[in-house]
């Protein structure tokens, strides 16, 4: 139960899909916290102290106790604050939610990034294929408005990467990663997600994120 | 109505071992089904259509895939016996963090050790030992990673011990001399019947790795 005495902070960068996941979870629960913007090219003492193992963001700090890894942070938030549950309560449904969230991390995120940040045609093709295969599984999985049912849940939050970031990569790189004609249900889901009242408030403005990734892509192309 | 629990597994898989240990810890009766990974059963393909991998836990006909997810599922369903995760959310998050660390580091680095040579192998060995040392630091003076009680991180990690003989032989190094506290922890775990009965003989695993190396053409 959050009280005035709770000290909550989130170390992150605006524009990171992993940080965004945690912000959605916090907003959903109505939890107030301090956002500490990191510079990944010059990591703060605090970040190195709170995540010495991976030195990555997001890191959520609750009364000076740090938790790292976005999906682990979300489970922690869900277990600590009971309002607006994010994970299902039924053990089997919970296991499925964890499975699909992990699937997104293992099969979509890495491949999408590799398909985008490469000038090697073969690498691009191979990773694009992987993303399309993975998205097909998700297309077959979506049965309601959201993966979580009528309301967003763990999988929807994990998949915000697909709804907001993949289309940006697609546009910059001229890729066919998430074609709406191939994945009509998933496309509709993505629109519902980015327009969801909580998600809409948390998502970063598109233009600066677009500009950031475009600059990274262009510097990669220039260096080859 | 009795619970029907089936485990689709492959004897040298450290991921399968995690579930075996958990089922033993909870005293759950189950049917063990050995899969031939070069000829996967229809049941496996139907139960894990996404990854087509073992282990798969099937509870009353419903499949749960991914070893740590299955372990947590067992914990959630059979919550009244032998808890394997701490009750406090912060300590649970820490347990999940370290189990995730094991997943990210130990398997892949170990695999690199027995499949590569030269500089690549040396780098993998170095990183592997560093990872074990970090885990030793985490363990500290505790009996188990879970504290006084054997728990989630212990279950996630101890199965990889069965592959150490293979790593040591092909990597030409000695893990106990580098990480004595780690091996001392392993020995404590092996004193538990749930662990000793769930883990194969490291020598058998070593022979299995010799076979695989021949099969995939590593000299």
UniProtKB/TrEMBL annotation, chain A:
Domain of life per record: Eukaryota
Key words, A-Z: Transferase
Q: What is its EC number?
A: 2.5.1.18
InterPro entries under this entry? Glutathione-S-Trfase_C-like (IPR010987), Glutathione-S-Trfase_C_sf (IPR036282), Glutathione_S-Trfase (IPR040079), Glutathione_S-Trfase_N (IPR004045), GST_C (IPR004046), GST_C_Tau (IPR045074), Omega/Tau-like (IPR045073), Thioredoxin-like_sf (IPR036249)
Which residue numbers delimit the GST N-terminal domain? 6-85
Classification via CDD domains: GST_C_Tau, GST_N_Tau
Any Pfam family from its record, for instance, is GST_N
Please name the PROSITE patterns in this protein's record: GST_CTER, GST_NTER
Q: Which reaction does it catalyse?
A: RX + glutathione = an S-substituted glutathione + a halide anion + H(+)
Instruction: Check the record and name the SUPFAM superfamilies matching this protein.
Output: GST C-terminal domain-like, Thioredoxin-like
| Domain GST C-terminal: from-to ranges | 90-212
Q: Does the keyword Membrane apply?
A: no
Q: Which GO terms describe its molecular function?
A: glutathione transferase activity
- UniProt record similarity statement: Belongs to the GST superfamily. Tau family.
Q: What is this protein called?
A: glutathione transferase
Organism classification, top ranks?
A: Eukaryota, Viridiplantae, Streptophyta, Embryophyta, Tracheophyta
UniProtKB/TrEMBL annotation, chain B:
The protein's location, in the record's own words, is:
Cytoplasm, Cytosol
Q: Which InterPro entries match?
A: Glutathione-S-Trfase_C-like, Glutathione-S-Trfase_C_sf, Glutathione_S-Trfase, Glutathione_S-Trfase_N, GST_C_Tau, Omega/Tau-like, Thioredoxin-like_sf
Write the record's keywords in alphabetical order, separated by commas. Cytoplasm, Transferase
Q: What EC number(s) does the entry state?
A: 2.5.1.18
Gene3D superfamilies xrefs: 1.20.1050.10, Glutaredoxin
Q: Which reaction does it catalyse?
A: RX + glutathione = an S-substituted glutathione + a halide anion + H(+)
User: What molecular function terms (GO) are annotated for this protein?
Assistant: glutathione transferase activity
User: Major location, coarse class?
Assistant: cytoplasm
Q: Which PROSITE patterns match?
A: GST_CTER, GST_NTER
The source's superkingdom equals Eukaryota
* Domain annotation GST C-terminal: ranges: 88-208
Q: Which part of the chain is the GST N-terminal domain?
A: 3-82
PANTHER family per the record? GLUTATHIONE S-TRANSFERASE U19, GLUTATHIONE S-TRANSFERASE, GST, SUPERFAMILY, GST DOMAIN CONTAINING
Report the sequence similarity comment from the record.
Answer: Belongs to the GST superfamily.
What functional role does this protein have? Is involved in the conjugation of reduced glutathione to a wide number of exogenous and endogenous hydrophobic electrophiles.
The entry's protein name is Glutathione S-transferase
Organism of provenance: Flemingia macrophylla
């Amino acid at each position: 139960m959050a009280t005035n005495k709770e000290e909550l902070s989130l170390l992150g960068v605006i524009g990171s899909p992993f940080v965004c996941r945690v912000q959605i979870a916090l907003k959903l629960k109505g939890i107030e916290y301090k956002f500490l913007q990191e510079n990944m090219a010059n990591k703060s003492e605090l970040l190195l102290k709170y995540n010495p193992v991976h030195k990555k963001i997001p890191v959520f700090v609750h009364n000076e106790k740090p938790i790292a890894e976005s999906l682990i942070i979300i489970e922690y938030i869900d277990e600590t604050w009971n309002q607006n549950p994010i994970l299902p309560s039924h053990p089997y449904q919970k296991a499925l939610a964890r499975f699909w969230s992990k699937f997104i991390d293992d099969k979509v995120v890495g491949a999408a990034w590799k398909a985008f940040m490469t000038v090697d045609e073969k690498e691009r093709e191979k990773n694009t294929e992987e993303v399309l295969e993975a998205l097909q599984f998700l297309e077959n999985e979506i049965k309601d408005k959201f993966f979580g049912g009528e309301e967003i849940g763990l999988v929807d939050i994990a998949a915000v990467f697909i709804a907001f970031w993949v289309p940006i990569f697609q546009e910059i790189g001229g890729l066919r990663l998430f074609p709406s004609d191939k994945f009509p249900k998933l496309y509709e889901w993505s629109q519902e997600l980015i327009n969801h009242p909580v998600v809409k408030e948390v998502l970063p403005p598109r233009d600066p994120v677009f500009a950031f990734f475009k600059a990274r892509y262009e510097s990669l192309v220039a260096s080859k | 109505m009795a619970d029907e629990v089936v485990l689709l597994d492959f004897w040298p898989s450290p991921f399968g071992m995690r579930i075996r240990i958990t089922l033993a810890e909870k005293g759950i009766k189950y049917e063990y089904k050995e899969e031939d990974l070069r000829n996967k059963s229809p049941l496996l393909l139907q139960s894990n259509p996404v990854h087509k991998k073992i282990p798969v836990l099937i509870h009353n006909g419903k499949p749960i895939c991914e070893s740590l997810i299955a372990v947590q599922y067992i914990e959630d369903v059979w919550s009244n016996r032998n808890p394997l995760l701490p009750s406090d959310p912060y300590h649970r998050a820490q347990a999940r963090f370290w189990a995730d660390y094991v997943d990210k580091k130990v398997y892949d680095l170990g695999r690199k050790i027995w499949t590569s040579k030269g500089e690549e192998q040396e780098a993998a060995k170095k990183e592997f030992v560093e990872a074990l040392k970090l885990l030793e630091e985490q363990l500290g003076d505790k009996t188990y990673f879970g504290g006084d009680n054997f728990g989630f991180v212990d279950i996630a990690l101890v199965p990889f011990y069965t592959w150490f003989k293979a790593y040591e032989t092909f990597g030409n190094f000695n893990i106990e001399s580098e990480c004595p506290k780690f091996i001392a922890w392993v020995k404590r775990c092996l004193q538990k019947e749930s662990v000793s009965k769930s883990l194969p003989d490291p020598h058998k695993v070593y022979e299995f790795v010799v076979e695989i190396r021949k099969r995939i053409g590593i000299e």
